[in-house]
Every structure is written in C-alpha cells, then in structure tokens.
C-alpha cells in the first residue's frame, strides 16, 4: 500500500512515523497536490503540534482551496488555537463546498458547536449519522446538539441507540440522566448500577456515579445520591491533585492588584455594549441569560472566553494558565482600552453584525469585574447570588468540564465552601471600588417575585420593559449548560433549599460559613 491510502491507514492506527513518512513522500512525488501537505499536517496535529500543522493545511488549501475536508480540519485546528473568527470563516467555506463524507460533516458540526452555533450544528451531525449509523461518536454528537437545542425526544432516542450498541457507554448514560428529570416510575437507576459494576476506567466511574447520583436525587433517594457523589468526587480530587491554595493564590493576587486603587463612581455612558452575567456556577446565570436574551433588543453570546483571553493576551505572560497570580499582576499594566479592543475582537465572532446588546454569561467573569468596569464604562454587570448552602451543594453535585481548572474546587464540599467565602469577599471589593456597577441579583428573590425582580434586572441593564422576559422558557435558542432542562420549564422553587435533604453531610459547611460571617438561615 502506497500514497494517500498508506498515510491515512497509518494515521488511523496511530502510527505517526509511518504516516508522516508516507505523506512526505507524496509531497516529493506531487508537489502541486494538496494531499501530502494535508496529511503531514494531520500527523503534526495528532502529535500535539498544532502551530506546526496550521501552515501545512494552509499550503494544502492554496493548492486545493475548495476541499471541504481540508477546510473543516483547518477550522478545527484554528478553534484549538482560539482563533474563532478565522475558524468560523473556514467552517462556512467547508459547508459551502458541500462535503459528502461523514467525518468531515462531523468535524464541521463540532466546530460549529465550539463556536456556540448549536442550532446550525444539528444538520451536519445528523447527516454524518445517516452516512455512518454505526459510528457512536457521530451519534453522540448529534444527540448532544439535539439536547442543547430542545429536541429532547430525538436526543433521548439517540442516546438509547448508543446504549443498545454499547451498554457501558458512560458518556451516553450521563447525558441521558441530565437530559430531563427522572421519576420513580421512569428512571435508569438499575441500569446505571449495572453499568457501574461493569465499568473499569476511572473516567467512566466518574460519569456513571454522577449519573446515578442525579437520578437517585430525582427519585428522592438522597442518601444514595450523596454516597455516589462523595465517592466520585473524592477519587477525582485525588486524581487532579487539587489543593484550595491553587485558587487562593488567584484571589490573593486580585486583592493585592486592585485593592489599593481609588474607588470610581459609576456613571453609565449609555445603554449600549455587552451585559456581563457573572457569579458562582449553578446559581442561576443561565436563567438570567435566558431572561435577558428573551428581550427583543438582546441576544445571548453564551459563555464567552473572550474576557479571560483578552486579559491574558494584554498581560503578555507566558504561563500556560489563563489566570494565575503573575497574569493578574501584569494585567493592570496595559491600558483598559487595549483589553476592550481585544475582547471585542473575540466577541464579535459570536454575535451577528450590528448587534449592540449581547449577554456574555461566563460565570467566572466575576474574577474580571475590575477589568470589565475599567474597560467598558457602559457595560452592565449582573452577579447572581444563591443561598450559600445551595450554592455549595449544587456545585458539588454537578459534573463540570473535568479538564478545566475553573471548577477544580467543586469536588469537595469544604473546598467549595472556601471558594464561596473568597468569591463573596472579592465581590465586596468590587462593590467598594466600583459602586453601583454590579447588580447583586438573588436567585431566591427572583423565584419569589418574578415580575418585580425582572423589572429590576431590566432597569439595571438599561432595557425597556418587555413582557417576553417573563416567558423565558419559551425562548427556543440553544442552551449548552447543565441548566438546559431547567430553563425550558417555567420558573419554579424546586432548587430552593435542596441542600436540606443532605443536612447531616452539610453541617461542616454550615459551621464554616457561620465562622466566616456568611448567613445561612
């Protein structure tokens, strides 16, 4: 076997040396053909050399500019380099080239999903499944896109198809568990228990225990739910080697960098610009995003990484972490206008041209309130607050992106409590420095009086009253967070006081909060 077939076969089996040798031989034999350059690029990408792969794909595209496979993989690599605008342009060119192979269609769907365009990702995922129905990865991606866009029945059917072919598929089990609320009459508890008994990989144990805990809690088995979560989280915390001091250094650096600044009175310039919805995860940020984006003048841009990346780029630090003590200190040196420019350059790729009011609902932007206030005098900031005990429990019970350092504190109740205390202390500092800039918005108050609190929210954001904001659950736009199922229901009090079902286990958290002056009653 020679040529493209040899290179692609070796690439599929992970033999990068053989694949690279065959691809380079193709370039020598046909320097005007794009395939050799493309395959050398894919070998580099598989080796983790993304920066090296990109110019090679660009060379392949010079020679074959309408090749949909090259364009799709180019877009995927650009996403990995956080070059979202270029990735968006490349993926749309790939779509225009009308790809016919399942892998390219799936890649297009994945890029669109990473860009937050979940609605448009559904068709390429669906077509990939139609072309290769036995590929469970393609079927999973289609199911996830359907779940994000409210096609719950289709998503459920796809996950069940995956489990019919692969009964131990932990990703599908977990996705199915969180897709909707389970009942005593209809649940998957027994099936999940069997899958957990048969699982051997730590990553599978983690997902299956989270899925089991979620369903047990749904059906009222609080004790079993806690046991499953406690075991899953203890094992994962040990695996990632997390210590609270890792986050404490960031909080300390923020207080050191900003604490000595002179307070700035808030004078809103106009009702333009972005609306930042921040707070601890699982406190209602998605809910508020849905309320605001139901307004006729507002769209949701989702959870943008634009502010963290803009601050990191402006700081110019070489550490691999997006935020660390060094970056926090260095980020005060650039002019606020530079951070504004970098932020808008990234954010514009996630909203339609001409849109003035959009919501950036990355919860972790509470770490960047100082930069937001300095860089966007016109921006409105809303910080969600939820009962501290419910906040800790909800963080502990939800499986976040396991590779993200943002959520490393969530695998231990006391770490989550410590994080909450520092979060509140940081928000107090922002309030002292930028009085009036941040609306502290209570989840419980919203549940108790939706109309009044919604009016307060819109007033703070400089928005006229729009009754559609009360019907946020009718908003059909995609939701790609763990709150997807909840925000498609009407406002309810189901999440208020949920921690009380685990009162005994939560007692150390209550004591800790009382010691630090955090009211819990």
From TrEMBL:
It comes from the Bacteria. TPR repeats lie at residues 34-67, 102-135. SUPFAM superfamilies: P-loop containing nucleoside triphosphate hydrolases (SSF52540), TPR-like (SSF48452). The keyword Transport does not apply. Keywords: TPR repeat, Transferase. InterPro entries: P-loop_NTPase, TPR-like_helical_dom_sf, TPR_rpt, TPST-like. PROSITE patterns: TPR. SMART domains: TPR (SM00028). Coiled coil: none annotated. This is Sulfotransferase. The lineage of its organism: Bacteria, Pseudomonadati, Pseudomonadota, Alphaproteobacteria, Sphingomonadales.
